[in-house]
Specification:
By secondary structure, the chain is of the alpha/beta class. It is built from ten helices and eleven strands. Strands 1, 2, 3, 4, 5 and 11 form a six-stranded mixed β-sheet that branches. It has a five-stranded mixed β-sheet with strand order 8-7-9-6-10, sandwiched between helices. Helix 1 packs across helix 3, helix 2 runs antiparallel to helix 10 and helix 3 packs parallel to helix 4. Belongs to the bacterial solute-binding protein ModA family.
């Protein structure tokens, strides 16, 4: 199983990860996608089993859950290789619009998915499979004693380093909705292209606080703490998933792609997501 985990700097990327990432980067640099790769074709193995490769483009916040789902899927279908690629939803959408290839797309909000649907790159209607909300994230021990969104703004105005996702990224759009609901504004020390980058800076002590999904706080364990804020409860990100259209997929057959989406939507898939802190829609 090869994991293509796109994060800040792509740390310790395997050859498989680089290979999958290059599929995306090629789409960004080329004027149009090349012919679909036959190596990714989905076929039926002996006894009608699934076989082939499925490239799953997913929001960075889904990494822990989708890595587990990919392993479960491969265990159930030994002839299948699942290749996840994680990044900010807006980045993935932009790459697809510029000609990159993939088989399944899962974004952290419906508006980003809509841009891909409107371009005719999704086969059928995407389905919302989970939801997420934001928390303030601080280093372990909460050294700046951040307890509210107002505290976050005060910290930023007094020289503290508060990081947010960029406004075009789902977590960034949600963060600004939370700030507006709290009646505050702040100048972020940096604006990151995905939620993992925000979390990484706080965990490394490069930032004093940020706004990330509660699932990311949970996945980080003891490195950070999450602070619930009232305004975040009403700002819910709904995550859709869909199979990409024939001209965008790396294979002509939808069997593997549909089966993976079905796993995500199934009771088993929902249990995996719930264990990571996601909430059913």
């Amino acid at each position: 199983m090869r994991r293509a985990s796109r994060g800040p700097g792509w740390p310790r990327a395997s050859r498989g990860a680089v290979a999958v990432a290059l599929v995306l980067l090629a789409g960004c640099s080329a004027p149009a996608p090349g012919p679909a790769s036959t190596s990714g074709a989905a076929t039926s193995g002996d006894g009608g089993g699934l076989a082939g490769t499925v490239t799953v483009l997913a929001a960075a916040s889904l990494q822990a859950a989708f890595d587990e789902l990919a392993a479960d899927f491969e265990a159930a279908h030994p002839g299948v290789d699942v290749r996840p690629v994680y990044d900010g939803s807006a980045t993935l959408a932009t790459q697809l619009l510029e000609g990159a290839r993939g088989d399944v797309l899962a974004t952290a909000d419906e508006s980003t998915m809509a841009t891909v649907v409107d371009a005719g790159l999704v086969d059928g209607a995407p389905e919302v499979f989970t939801t997420n909300t934001l928390q303030v994230v601080v280093p372990a021990g909460n050294p700046q004693d951040v307890r509210s969104v107002a505290d976050l703004a005060d910290l930023a105005s007094s020289g503290g380093h508060v990081v947010l996702c960029a406004p075009q990224v789902p977590c960034g759009a949600a963060a600004r909705t939370v700030l507006t609901a709290a009646g505050v504004s702040l100048a972020a020390a940096s604006e990151e292209q995905n939620v993992t980058a925000v979390l990484t800076k706080v965990a490394a002590g490069e930032a004093d606080a940020g706004l990330v999904y509660r699932t990311d706080v949970r996945a980080a364990g003891d490195e950070v703490e999450g602070v619930d804020v009232d305004e975040a409860a009403d700002v819910v990100n709904r995550y859709p998933i869909g199979v990409l259209a024939a001209g965008t997929r790396t294979s002509a057959d939808q069997a593997v792609e549909r089966a993976f989406v079905d796993l995500v939507l199934s009771d088993a898939g929902q249990r995996v997501l719930a264990a990571r802190g996601f909430v059913a829609p």
